[in-house]
From TrEMBL:
Binding site for substrate: N13, Q47, N65, G75, N76, N149, N182, E200, R201, G210, T211
This protein's UniProt keywords: Amino-acid biosynthesis, Cytoplasm, Isomerase, Lysine biosynthesis
Organism field: Qipengyuania vulgaris
Keyword Thylakoid among UniProt keywords: no
Segment forming the signal sequence: none
Enzyme active site: C74, C209
Protein name (record): Diaminopimelate epimerase
């Protein structure tokens, strides 16, 4: 079966988007997701995105990490799908309902309120998620935020000096995080600007992470280090995050359609 796809990215965090709203697709096994996502032997992407019909929203967006695992949220993909859809939409995800509005060259995304309870992240045992008494090597005193998916946030003097390729997987897979975790290392440059690098659960180092930018901005606001809105500068570019305690999160930034193609379903088992 020939399957059309759209290759997209948000600040270099890239996606293969399959539209199952009009074309029925067989179930996606982990191995097939990993094969399609593989940059050497497959099409290559950080996440595989599948659009489906929805009872509760305009459509549903399923998100699969490069390792084949299905997850709850993907901020950059939400903006990419918004421009693909071409008009305002409510999108159902496993992490909640999103409202997206495409604009010139990008989109803004309204997401559910963040959650901070230790068992909402989730963590394996109770602790204060605003100042967690844990550390790994030079990374300590983190915060944890769930923005549909789980994030841990460390503030450091200079993000470029952190060996995230080594510490990222160690923290991602630590038993403290029963669902694993996305690892954010951030430098607060001013009350209006944060620099961020992310080791993503199930995808590794990416050029940008939309939910990571949201989680990091919110944690910095909770610690009174930045104001809202704040600009988050990732290796791939900048996002603007707005949030007030007790309200939903708004993320605004670019998204791009790279190219369209098709593949033979049975080529990726
Ligand atoms: N790795 C993330 C999913 C993708 C998030 C990232 N690509 C974004 O833009 O939010 C997770 O396992 O929760």
């Amino acid at each position: 079966m020939r399957v059309p796809f759209t290759k997209m990215h948000g600040l270099g965090n890239d996606f293969v988007v399959l539209d199952a709203r009009t074309q029925e697709l067989p179930a996606l096994e982990r191995s097939r997701v990993a094969a399609i996502s593989d940059r050497q032997t497959g099409i290559g992407c950080d996440q595989l995105i599948v659009l489906e019909p929805s009872e509760d929203a305009d459509f549903r967006m399923r998100i699969y990490n490069q390792d084949g695992g299905e997850v709850e949220a993907c901020g950059n993909a939400s903006r990419a799908v918004a421009i693909l859809h071409g008009s305002d939409a409510r999108i159902e995800t496993a992490g909640g309902i999103l409202s997206v509005s495409p604009a010139a060259g990008g989109a803004s995304v309204q997401m559910d309120e963040p959650r901070f309870g230790w068992n909402d992240i989730p963590l394996a045992y109770a602790m204060d998620t605003l100042a967690m008494p844990v550390g790994w090597d030079m990374l300590d005193d983190p915060g944890a935020v769930n923005v549909g998916n789980p994030h841990v946030v460390f503030f450091v003097d200079n993000t470029d000096t952190i060996p995230l390729d080594r510490l990222g997987p160690e923290i991602e897979n630590d038993p403290l995080f029963p669902n694993r975790v996305n690892v954010n290392v951030a430098t607060v440059e001013s009350r209006k600007r944060i620099r961020l690098r992310v080791w993503e659960r199930g995808a590794g180092l990416t050029r940008a992470c939309g939910t990571g930018a949201c989680a990091t901005a919110i944690h910095a606001m909770r610690r009174k280090l930045v104001d809202s809105p704040v600009t988050v500068a990732l290796p791939g570019g900048e996002l603007v995050i707005e949030w007030r305690e007790g309200t939903s999160i708004r993320m605004t930034g670019p998204a791009t359609e790279s190219f369209r193609g098709s593949f033979e379903w049975d080529d990726y088992a």
